[in-house]
């Protein structure tokens, strides 16, 4: 992980871009995190649409097992402590 100060990132922008192809590059402003530069490949991976949760669950390897206990506990809740 490389952290760049804003002035250094501006002065060495080409190098910053080349390094972002391999790993995220963090930019700080006044000593605090300000931005992250990532590769286009990583950006596309992160921004691709995710399947609906229901579809995700149906394609899960756990969907074929009957190990999930979906019964609700019918016991009374605990008494509040005073």
Structure in a nutshell:
With 82 residues, the protein is of the alpha+beta class.
Write a structural description:
There is one protein chain. A 3-stranded mixed sheet has the order 1-2-3. The radius of gyration is 24 Å and the shape is elongated. The mean pLDDT is 89. The protein has a domain at 2-49: YefM-like fold (3-Layer(aba) Sandwich). The chain has helices at residues 6-11, 13-20, 40-47, 53-58, and strands spanning 2-5, 25-29, 32-37. A hairpin with a 2-residue loop joins strand 2 and strand 3 (32-37). The protein contains 4 helices and 3 strands. By secondary structure, it is α+β, with helices and mostly antiparallel strands.
Percentage of β-strand residues: 15-25%
Number of helices: 4
**Quick one: CATH superfamily of one domain?**
YefM-like domain
In CATH, the architecture of one domain is 3-Layer(aba) Sandwich
Kindly provide the name of the CATH class of one domain.
Alpha Beta
Strand runs, count: 3
Mean pLDDT: 89
Mind summarizing the main beta sheet? 3 strands, mixed
Q: How is the topology of this model organized?
A:
Layout lengths: L1 E4 H6 L1 H8 L4 E5 L2 E6 L2 H8 L5 H6 L24
Parallel strand pairs: 1-2
Antiparallel strand pairs: 2-3
